[in-house]
Design a protein that fits this description.
The protein is built from five helices and no strands. It is mainly alpha-helical. Helix 3 (about 55-75) packs antiparallel against helix 5.
């Protein structure tokens, strides 16, 4: 499920933006927003899982938040609102992969019989 949104987002999101009347230049700008947002948010999101918040709950919460922000985009056509929601979704999901790796590594160390890597 972690990569489901990416599998839909990458090929279809620019087409969806165009269907909303967003110009080609604005689409290009909007597609850079998640990249920048992830860079800014990744260490902070993953850092929360280092003891402040249980990693399993944080992982579930971040995935849920990202999904809700994506869902909120469905009714939008204003590029500014779409850009804000894209940034929030990207920031929410920035820590998902590092947290999943952290949880998997913890299970390997605990001797759960998982062969990772």
């Amino acid at each position: 499920l972690t990569f489901l949104s990416v599998g839909v987002y990458i090929p279809f999101f620019p087409l969806w933006l165009a269907s909303r009347g967003v110009s080609d230049v604005a689409i290009g700008v909007l597609l850079t927003i998640p990249i920048v947002a992830r860079v800014l948010a990744a260490s902070g999101a993953a850092g929360l899982g280092d003891g402040r918040v249980p990693p399993v709950l944080l992982l579930a919460g971040l995935n849920l938040a990202g999904a809700l922000f994506y869902a909120a985009m469905a009714a939008q056509s204003d590029p500014w609102v779409i850009g804000l929601l894209m940034a929030l979704s990207a920031m929410a999901t920035a820590g998902v992969i590092p947290l999943a790796d952290m949880l998997t590594t913890a299970q390997v160390r605990a001797g759960a019989g998982i062969d990772y890597g």
